[in-house]
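Quarterly update from the structural biology core.
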Amino acid sequence: MQVRDGERLAVTTEEPGPVDATARLSMDTYQRLAAGEVTADHTMRDQLTQVEGQIYPVTLLGRWIDRSQGRDDGELERERAQRRIQEATHPRSTATHTARSRDG
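Predicted structure, tokenized:
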């Protein structure tokens, strides 16, 4: 499965060109993840997923999976709480970061 920035997912048996990260997991783990029996965070924590390359793209994929299954409320609240802490500690730098994030 290839997750490409802003494009549809691609499922193929062929190796893609250069990638930022590769996540490998067993078919059993994939099926449990797709069925909502385990979370992406759980598969990483219990070393059911092996990552080669950058961790951030794999983390985003895990968040996308959680969100698609309606399981991201806890993570969204954690992010809101962290944002409040950052704004209280560094109000100017957080505003600059937010503006840059919105611009792409």
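The chain has two domains: 1-71, 73-104.
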